[in-house]
Design a protein that fits this description.
By secondary structure, this protein is largely without helices or strands. It is built from six helices and 18 strands. A hairpin with a 4-residue loop joins β3 and β4.
Length: 422
């Protein structure tokens, strides 16, 4: 090991030790991830103004889109490497181990329990090369990319594919495997390390699409003290229901990384919430129907729009269960699937206590994990060709368009049965 490498590791180790010694340092929207005040010391946990060794860069908002140094303290060459210095199994700065998908602390969740987002996974040198595994040694069968590679968001753009689809707000019309706009995927694609108005520091703007932010005028704020306008909020204890304000510390906030306490969208706006945030990339998924190329062989919108687009139909999201009361009320009272809770005593506003009711919402995270899933797809849930009903039982595939477990929380289509009880 070179002297330069040793020096870098010693500096990083000192930084990690400092992180360990500050109890609030690893909380989303607190510590190094927000809640900054005028005499904050948090900047020094990640940055050095004059001597930063990392080559990680970011692109400015100026017209020239100039590339700037992130001034990070480490020898990391990518964003995800820097984040995993704390959020991996070997990192000492955070108890949220997103690689293995488990919570390693005791104060803000159940020790050893699965994180709400699931696991991105890691290779096991004693097992199949190229296969990623979670903390329970189950293969990760689907995940969002986080290592800086590019992929297309399913349902992205106006028609779910790029072709000549220049209307999408990102303007990044690079076709990829019949999916939506090509997006570079790493931790910073979804999360803002400096904090945001949203739950879990989810970014306020994703690829040019506003999914949160700060309003200095329309909501009664000022230029120096703007009002948060979040898309995603929570029912965790002490969570600010109006979103996280700038230059404000929330000492009463207690996140829970293993028990879902999602909230319906602010002001009950059905276009917001977690689902509204996800459609920053998965543009067409909020509506019940749309013209969409799923890449599954049932229809394609041609580049010159000469063919008739195929109408795709979707399960409604950001809706309360009461919308579907019929012969039998579909009220989930004892389920491992998380709903988004509304106002009222049953939701335990401000207490962190929640109970499912028929007024709660179905949203993206009711059925899907945000990071990764180790669920198994067999039988009809693993039909590789929609035009051929041959059942394939490897357990690791899935139906088009994703051809994997689609980040689903339960095996096969258990997420359907939990609510529909057929």
């Amino acid at each position: 090991m070179t002297a330069k490498k040793i020096a870098t590791l010693l500096v990083l180790a000192a930084t990690v030790l400092a992180v360990v010694l500050v109890p609030s340092i690893a909380l989303a929207n607190m510590g190094p991830h927000g809640g900054y005040i005028s005499n904050t010391e948090a900047c020094a946990g990640c940055h050095r103004a004059h001597t930063a060794p990392s080559s990680v860069t970011w692109v400015g908002n100026d017209t020239a889109k100039s590339v700037k140094s992130a001034l990070l303290l480490s020898d990391a060459t990518t964003v995800y490497q820097f984040c995993l210095a704390c959020h991996d199994s070997t990192g000492q700065g955070a108890d949220t181990n997103v690689t293995d998908g488990i919570y390693e602390g005791t104060q803000y969740g159940t020790k050893g329990a699965t994180l709400l987002g699931g696991a991105f996974g890691r290779e096991d040198p004693n097992k199949t090369k190229g296969v990623l595994y979670d903390a329970k040694n189950n293969p990760v069968t689907s995940s969002h990319l986080m290592n800086g590679q590019s992929w297309g968001a399913w349902g992205g753009g106006t028609f779910g594919s790029t072709a000549t689809d220049t209307a999408h707000a990102s303007g990044n019309v690079v076709g990829l495997l019949g999916t939506g706009d090509k997006i570079v995927m790493d931790c910073g694609t979804c999360h803002d390390p400096h904090g945001s108005s949203n739950y879990r520091i989810l970014k306020d703007v994703v690829y040019g699409v506003a999914v949160g932010g700060y309003d200095p005028i329309n909501n009664g704020g000022t230029a120096t003290s703007p009002t948060p306008t979040p898309f995603v909020i929570s029912r965790e204890k002490g969570f600010p229901q109006g979103g996280f304000a700038l230059h404000t510390q929330y000492t009463a906030y207690e996140p829970n990384y293993t028990s879902a306490k999602y909230a319906i969208a602010p002001s009950s706006n059905e276009l917001k919430g977690m689902s509204g945030w996800c459609t920053g990339c998965h543009t067409t998924y909020m509506t019940k129907t749309s013209q969409y190329d799923a890449g599954d062989g049932f229809g394609f919108v041609s580049a010159d729009a000469s063919s008739t687009p195929v109408i795709r139909h979707r399960h409604p999201i950001n809706v309360p269960l009461t919308n579907f009361v019929g012969v039998r009320a579909l009220v989930v009272t004892d389920s491992i699937l998380p709903l988004a809770h509304g106002d009222g005593a049953s939701a335990g506003v401000g207490t962190g206590v929640v109970a499912n009711t028929d007024a709660d919402w179905i949203e993206c995270l009711t059925c899907h994990n945000a990071h990764g899933a180790s669920t198994v797809m067999t039988g009809w849930a693993n039909v590789a060709d929609p035009a051929n009903d041959l059942r394939v039982n490897t357990g690791l595939g899935g139906v088009p368009p994703t051809n994997d477990s689609a980040l689903l929380k339960l095996d096969n289509r258990g997420v359907c049965e939990t609510c529909h009880n057929k």
